[in-house]
Design a protein that fits this description.
- With 177 residues, the protein is mainly α.
- It has a single domain, classed as Glycoprotein, Type 4 Pilin (2-Layer Sandwich).
- 44% of the residues lie in helices and 5% in strands.
- It contains two helices and three strands, in the order ααβββ.
- Strands 1-2-3 form a three-stranded antiparallel beta sheet, covered by helices on one side.
- The longest helix has 52 residues.
- The radius of gyration is 40 Å and the shape is rod-shaped.
Length: 177
């Protein structure tokens, strides 16, 4: 056995086995350091694909649950607007003793119609500040006499903008409950 001479007399003498252990520890530290570097370098393609698939599934679940809610909200807004227009038409009738005629339509709620029998009875500022558009960007419709048994119809043609239809494309009117 070879002994290593201490540089200072107070230091213990190192043996070959101690040197071998130190070298092995150094190799392990280098190997561990290399594997940590490799782990920190990034994700594999498979890991990225798994994450993308999970995000896609989550987006699909959200879309399936949110889109019908948006359609319901638009129909609810149309019903609320129609109710507001109905109330304004009733107030117009109370003041002017008649409903707006079919020719004047809903515009009679914002400005006095031409040929009004007693224009002095028309409320200053009108009965509604401005006419709303339906949630799909089209004007609300007014029909007098009603095609559904009432005094008048106020309605939206729905998402498709055409009379009739089913589901989101169905007409929404004051004759519905």
């Amino acid at each position: 056995m070879t002994e290593i001479q201490p540089q200072h007399p107070a230091e213990p003498v190192a043996t070959e086995s101690a040197c071998v252990r130190a070298q092995a520890a150094t190799r392990r530290a280098r190997r561990d350091s290399a594997s940590r570097r490799k782990a920190r370098q990034g994700f594999t393609l498979v890991e990225l694909m798994v994450v993308i698939v999970i995000i896609g599934l989550l987006a699909t679940v959200v879309a399936i649950n949110v889109l019908p809610s948006q359609d319901k909200a638009m129909i609810g807004k149309a019903r609320a607007d129609i109710s507001t227009l109905e109330q304004a038409i009733e107030t117009y009738r109370l003041d002017n003793l008649t409903f707006p005629d079919a020719q004047s339509g809903l515009q009679a709620l914002t400005a006095p119609p031409v040929g009004l029998a007693r224009p002095e009875r028309y409320r200053e500022g009108g009965y509604i500040r401005r006419l709303p558009e339906d949630p799909w960007g089209a004007p609300y419709q007014y029909r007098r006499p009603s095609a559904h048994g009432g005094q008048f119809d106020v309605f939206s043609y729905g998402a498709d903008g055409k009379e009739g239809g089913e589901g989101n494309d169905a007409d929404i009117g004051n004759w519905q409950s």
